[in-house]
UniProtKB/TrEMBL annotation:
GO terms for molecular function: ABC-type amino acid transporter activity; ATP binding; ATP hydrolysis activity. It is found in: Cell membrane. Residues 7-249 form the ABC transporter domain. Gene3D superfamilies: P-loop containing nucleotide triphosphate hydrolases. Keywords: ATP-binding, Cell membrane, Membrane, Nucleotide-binding, Transport. InterPro entries: AAA+_ATPase (IPR003593), ABC_ATPase_HisP-typ (IPR030679), ABC_transporter-like_ATP-bd (IPR003439), ABC_transporter-like_CS (IPR017871), MetN_ABC_transporter-like (IPR050086), P-loop_NTPase (IPR027417). It is a peripheral membrane protein. One of its GO terms (cellular component) is plasma membrane. Pfam families: ABC_tran (PF00005). This is Amino acid ABC transporter ATP-binding protein (PAAT family). Signal peptide: none annotated.
Amino acid sequence: MSTDPLIEVRGLRKAFGDNEVLRGIDLTVPEGSATTLLGPSGSGKTTVLRSLNVLETPDAGVVRIGDASVDFGERADARTRREEVRALRARSGMVFQSHHLFPHKTVLQNLLEGPVQVQRRDVDSATADARALLEQVGLAGREDAYPAQLSGGQQQRVGIARALALKPQVVLLDEPTSALDPELVGEVLAVIRDLAAQGWTLVVVTHEIRFARDVADQVLFLDQGVIAERGGPEVLTDPREERTRQFLSRVL
Ligand code: ADP
């Protein structure tokens, strides 16, 4: 059996104009583990996450998820690159800060869009899977509701179910609770905790330090486009680096 990590990133670089946002990121994520990306605002966390799904195109570096990999520093003809990117994207499901649900579609229709329209899966089996996912995120019985009829926390839980409906190898979550009213944060974090407990591979950008300490197998602390510190959850209680210490003292 292979013991390769599920995700491997080497030498990831990205600039927006003169702004060098990622300055050589290396990371690995073992299958079935939860990784949290923490660090000050603007340190590059979201750009790392979006690069895994090629929502941002890195300037250089290799991103591999499972058996799909793209070397962004290497020239490729447009068609080959498009095919590589499509394969890499298919390995992950993304949960955004605000849920991006289709407002004119029901919850169930939102969940079926990717599996049926994009993945061409059979409607009956995709529907059965979607109902099971809604139950898993605590929304059984709400499949005919429209997003506007749900609370922000419920909408975000649909957003999580929608990412899972694609049967990805990894779920990428970009500050999944930061757009929510404080009283709705807990229900969404509870669903993510459940996913971690069930063995989903997760990469989460978050400011929720306590949540990170609870679920993270790996903590990556970013500062100015580099990983300044990495380790297990003990990084959050006993950081070695001054930059991490300062960040934690500001947010805790
Ligand atoms: P974080 O998630 O740690 O807050 P980001 O990855 O969102 O950081 O952003 C890192 C830096 O990149 C910031 O300075 C931000 O302004 C810049 N940036 C992010 N996305 C874009 C973009 N699409 N165009 C220009 N600059 C961007």
